[in-house]
Amino acid sequence: SYVLTQPPSVSLAPGKTARITCEGNNIGSKSVHWYQQKPGQAPVVIIYYDTDRPSGIPERFSGSNSGNTATLTISRVEAGDEADYYCQVWDSSIDHRGIFGGGTKLTVL
Amino acid sequence: EVQLVESGGGLVKPGGSLRLSCAASGFTFSIYNMNWVRQAPGKGLEWVSSITASSSYIYYADSLKGRFTISRDDAKNSLFLQMNSLTAEDTAVYYCARADYTSGSYFNVWGQGTLVTVSS
């Protein structure tokens, strides 16, 4: 089955740029979606179709996808960005299923 | 306001059954693919099941081994998950999630979740 691999944690100071990776075999051929989940809350989609941003999501959040790696970039990180971030694809290669990465805990120092 | 509200969670003994419900409002429920996603305590998100509009296609995670059944009632704007032969590994918050209309490949509306605890 298809596997998405994320780093368990990323830590950085406010104002810096965070890059959270999501690795998968030829993931560049798939559409990648990213979710933000804060403690005690449901996930919220922040990037869809690799690079698109829903209304209300700051431009500081951006995405890219190529080869075997998709990346969520958060510019000028703020304390309020501290959360868990998940990448997700819909795999239709053999059967249809949703697949999530293991999640990355972003800590703002 | 677009909203999903789950219910039906609770404490159940191993081997028991539970039926979760998700009430949708604020959008035309019948035209959207709907999903269940779960999250074990302190763990990541796990996709559980999907049902397309008109119940044309249904998909399940391999890990469920045929124990769960997803269904919908478009007349009542409701999504369901029947869970049988529950084990401790099924303990999780279960989220109802609406898929995007265009491709059905991501989840753009989520409920607040309902907690299922499997314990003796």
How would you describe the overall organization of this protein?
The complex is a heterodimer of chains A (109) and B (120). With 109 residues, chain A is mainly beta. Chain A contains no helices and nine strands. In chain A, the strands form two sheets. In chain A, strands 1, 3, 4, 7, 8 and 9 form a six-stranded mixed sheet that branches. In chain A, strands 2-6-5 form a three-stranded antiparallel sheet, with no helix packed on it. The mean pLDDT of chain A is 96. Chain B is mainly beta. Chain B contains no helices and eleven strands. In chain B, strands 2, 4, 5, 6, 9, 10 and 11 form a seven-stranded mixed sheet that branches. A four-stranded antiparallel sheet of chain B has the order 1-3-8-7, with no helix packed on it. In chain B, a hairpin with a 6-residue loop joins strand 5 and strand 6. Chain B is globular. The model of chain B has no long low-confidence stretch (mean pLDDT 96).
Key structural traits:
heterodimer; A: 109 residues; mainly beta; six-stranded mixed β-sheet; 45% strand; B: 120 residues; seven-stranded mixed β-sheet; four-stranded antiparallel β-sheet; globular
Number of helices of chain A: 0
Low-confidence stretches of chain B: none
What does the main sheet of chain B amount to? 7 strands, mixed
| Assembly classification | heterodimer
Count every beta strand of chain B, where a strand is a DSSP E run of 2 or more residues. 11
The largest inter-chain interface, given as chain pair and residues per side, is: A-B, 26 and 23 residues
Q: How much of the sequence of chain B is in beta strands?
A: over 45%
Order of helices and strands of chain A: EEEEEEEEE
Mean pLDDT of chain B: 96
Uncertain stretches of 5 or more adjacent residues of chain A: none
Q: So what's the overall shape of chain B?
A: globular
Q: How many whole angstroms does the radius of gyration of chain B measure?
A: 13 Å
Helical content of chain A (DSSP H or I, runs of 4+): under 10%
Structural category of chain A is: mainly beta
